[in-house]
Amino acid sequence: MANYQLIAATGCPTGIAHTYMAQEALEQAAKKKGITIKVETHGQIGVENELTTEEIAGADAVIIASDKDVNAERFAGKRVIDVSVGRGIKEADKLIQDALDGKGKVMGGTTKSVNGSTENSGTDQSDRGSSASIGRQIYKHLMNGVSHMLPFVVSGGVLVAISFLFGIYSADPTSDQYSQIAATLKDVGGTAMGLMVPVLSAYIAESIAKRPGLVAGFVGGMIALSGGTGFLGGIVSGFLAGFVVLLLSKMLKGMPHSLEGLKAIFILPVLGVLITGVGMVLLSQPMEAINNGMMDFLAGFQDSNPIVLGLIVGCMCAFDMGGQ
What we know:
Oligomer: single chain
Helix content: 55-70%
Radius of gyration: 23 Å
């Protein structure tokens, strides 16, 4: 098995273009410096070029260029440079050099130089302050939910759009345009679209608390969907479920090892679903009011000046994963 001096993991919310652009940029930068590197990609089709335990153990440093969860806990004890996928594309040469110079920080809070001695890493762009780190972690958790949600939105939206080719009212049994094929397409597409909020919530929670957070996230997302809180409710329920399960995991850390299985399949799911579910039920009414207020605000602009409407739509498009 080949040993690599550096290893890396790349990923972007959509998992289509930037993931592989960062991979190529890092590989080219390493090649120019005569360095061996293996880059694992977290694209929309899953993990490719997966790093093995032996390859992780044998590498001098790790570069994470990602805006989504790449299971970074695997790199515990390794010196890690963690940046956005955009920097992985634009600053690949600098990241490779930083890794060779011993910059970054060791997973777990201590730092290590190239020769293995322990020291403080100082403050550089790869080892930013706590507030920036918290903001970046929140962004990563959110993007992990978005990346898993996208296939449901795309597949459902396309099927619903195809149903309209038979006529705007082709799915309505009382209309002259009614078509059984169109109605079936709209039902299937609508089901896929309906899973958008629960999946978003579930994978935000999964990014925070790993697998134990998944069930609480799904349930919180379903309550958000049925409670009329929509996309905003899915985001809130995902973060609520993730941090609730993470807190419960830490509180139950002292349990006997023989009860670990019980904790994973019974205690954490039951308590996580209970606390998240009750929390979302209590939050649904005020959040529904906020959601409806935002919708009414946007609907009020549909008959306004086309330039103003264009600016609003343009800003919304730019905020929607702008730059990804």
